[in-house]
Design brief:
The complex is a heterodimer of chains A (264) and B (351). Chain A is mostly helical and 264 residues long. Chain A is built from twelve helices and no strands.
Chain lengths: 264, 351
């Protein structure tokens, strides 16, 4: 083990804090997962309503991540590479959804999409309904998840030396060609991490969704409903299943995004 | 040829201005200057990866100031190689070929000869992660030259290399320049590199050109105090001139030819000043008695400061000389500054 040295007191403080934090996060979760009996769990997963709502949660969060990927990637690239007037302002605006209380997000979107607003009238005229629809859920989840995607991918782009892009341009590749031949192959991992971050944030959203769409029921809303209507014991198995399914999905994505070999 | 006219670049807090340069076809031109002088900005403006505030850049008579980088036909080699980490050696070198269609087979042949010349054939399939610095710089050179650019920009190509690789790549650059038709424009802060590789140079300081000319001329006849110091003339002093006499503080010096100006600066290389133990004399030798102030060991040589009157001269001595002269601080010595070694800077200080 090498030569023993006296341990600085600060290190003890750090170790103690680590233990507290780990226990604080894991203890309630483990307790909750351990409490329902296997019978309860089996019964719950056979309930078509539960399956439907967990699937709806995954599906809408996935869609929110996909939308963030499509419109967030070019935006993150712009933020990472260009300096422009008002950039600081744009960067603070993209962080707004993180700070606003969740029900406020729901209320804001409803206010815009309702009959009393010209945009809401227009949307209803072309057949887009937000209140109580999957469209509404996806819209809300994209709103809260987008900052996580954009910030992650922006950091990913910033980590790529701009000189690589300069060389590519000098060799004859256009900006688009350079993006697909150099930037994207070097940044796709950060995009995947961004997608994980964004959908993780989306899947955990409750406050905004419950205002825009109580039905169709996403898993967090169902867990809340069962808790208020029937109590703790009845809501726990659904929560356990949601956690299990999410953990598996995110683990798979994480493994997929790890580098194959250690970078030199 | 590259022609740069009244180029001006303003970037957060730094201004590059009044850049006028003319670089001949096939020349090896060196942009010299200390860190932060704006050398790399000039390169990046030519490459088109930063935008210029005003001015004009043209290559072979074609104005390229408004062109996208991919339409300029210019290669770049960076200090940190900037190789594409996700591609192999071969894929890196072939990267630009698809944008430069020539007759079938011609580019393959050209790439093959480049790779042979640079000793890269056995590395073709390797990942660039496992290459040495010298190998990486060879790949970077091959990649840039593969598309036959009319101009190759080299941004401190030797600075990041270990000393043994540095010499190696220096030779490679010299040879490549002789064998390809491309104009080389290199940026460096190392005057020795410039002397070895380049033909003409422009010395940059604080975003402005101080002097342009043949490198050997700039070395011998620096035009400004800054250039004088940059090329190793440590003794730069303000002086008053009258005919063949110069007065630095209270030290009078004989010149070889009349200075032609009344007030200005003069510069003397530290290796041109001689130190003796005993008094000696000679015509135009400018012999003085002085006191050794300090001796600093610089490895291969020693820096000796000697005070004459109110002026401190810096003298360069070999280990051997130092040993024979038995120099130490406070020792009284005689120094001689040959009139031919005194260089008058015919430059009017406007500031």
């Amino acid at each position: 083990m090498g030569i023993k040295r006296p341990i600085d007191p600060f290190l003890w403080v750090a170790v103690f804090s680590t233990c507290i934090i780990m226990a604080f996060i894991l203890f309630p979760l483990i307790e909750m997962v351990a409490q329902p009996s296997l019978g309860d769990l089996k019964e719950t997963i056979q309930d078509p309503d539960v399956i439907r709502s967990i699937w709806l949660s995954i599906y809408t969060s996935g869609l929110a991540a996909l939308i963030s990927f499509v419109i967030g990637t070019p935006f993150a690239y712009l933020l990472a590479r260009k300096d422009f007037f008002g950039k600081k302002l744009v960067e603070s605006i993209i962080d707004l959804p993180i700070m606003i209380p969740h029900p406020v997000v729901g209320i804001a979107i409803l206010g815009l999409a309702g009959k009393n607003h010209w945009l809401g009238q227009f949307m209803q005229n072309v057949g887009i309904y937000v209140m109580g629809t999957v469209t509404g859920i996806v819209m809300v989840l994209t709103f809260v998840g987008l900052p996580f995607y954009v910030n992650t991918v922006k950091a990913g782009f910033e980590a790529i030396p701009v000189r690589l892009e300069n060389v590519s341009r000098s060799l004859g590749a256009s900006l688009t060609g350079t993006f697909f031949r150099v930037t994207f192959p070097l940044a796709w991992r950060s995009m995947l991490v961004g997608i994980i971050m964004c959908s993780a944030r989306a899947i955990s959203e409750f406050g905004a969704v419950v205002i825009v769409a109580y039905h169709p029921m996403i898993a967090p809303v169902m867990i809340y409903e069962r808790f208020t209507a029937y109590g703790l014991k009845y809501s726990q198995p659904v929560a356990v299943w949601l956690i299990v399914v999410c953990l598996i999905l995110f683990l798979l994505l994480r493994i997929f995004s790890l580098p194959k070999e250690k970078e030199a | 040829m590259i022609r740069i006219e009244s180029l001006r670049i303003e970037l957060s807090g730094f201004t590059l201005q009044d850049i006028d340069l003319f670089i001949r076809d096939g020349e090896f031109f060196v942009l010299l200057g200390p860190t932060g002088a704006g050398k790399t900005l000039v390169l990046e403006a030519i490459a088109g990866v930063i935008s210029v505030t005003s001015g004009r850049i043209s290559i072979k008579g074609r104005d390229i100031t408004g062109l996208q980088p991919e339409h300029r036909g210019i290669g770049i080699v960076y200090q940190d190689y900037a190789l594409f980490p996700h591609l192999s050696v071969m894929q890196n070198i072939n990267y630009g070929l698809r944008y430069h269609k020539v007759e079938p087979g011609a580019s393959e042949k050209w790439v093959k000869s480049l790779m042979e010349q640079l000793g890269l054939v056995r590395l073709a399939q390797r990942s660039i992660k496992y290459l040495s610095g010298g190998e990486k710089q060879r790949v970077s050179l091959a990649r840039a030259l593969a598309v036959n650019p009319s101009v190759l920009l080299l941004d401190e190509p030797l600075s990041a290399l270990d000393p043994n690789f540095r010499e190696d790549i220096r030779e490679v650059l010299k040879k490549l320049h002789q064998e390809v038709a491309t104009t080389f424009l290199m940026v460096t802060h190392d005057f020795a590199e410039a002397l070895f590789l380049g033909e003409r140079t422009a010395v940059l300081n604080h975003g402005k050109i101080e002097q342009v000319g043949r490198i050997s001329e700039v070395f011998r006849y620096p035009a400004t105090p800054f250039v004088a110091e940059f090329v190793g003339m440590k003794n730069v002093f303000p002086a008053i001139f009258k005919d063949t006499k110069a007065l630095v503080e209270n030290v009078g010096l004989d010149l070889e030819v009349p200075a032609g100006i009344h007030k200005g600066q003069l510069a003397i290389r530290p290796e041109d000043i001689m130190i003796r133990k005993e008094k000696f004399s000679g015509n135009g030798m400018n012999v003085f008695q002085g006191k050794v102030l300090d001796v600093i060991n610089r490895g291969p040589y020693h820096d000796v400061s000697v005070r004459i009157g109110d002026v401190i001269f810096s003298v360069m001595l070999s280990k051997n000389d130092l040993f024979e002269l038995e120099l130490h601080n406070e020792k009284d010595v005689y120094i001689s500054i040959p009139a031919s070694a005194i260089h008058v800077l015919k430059y009017q200080d406007i500031s």
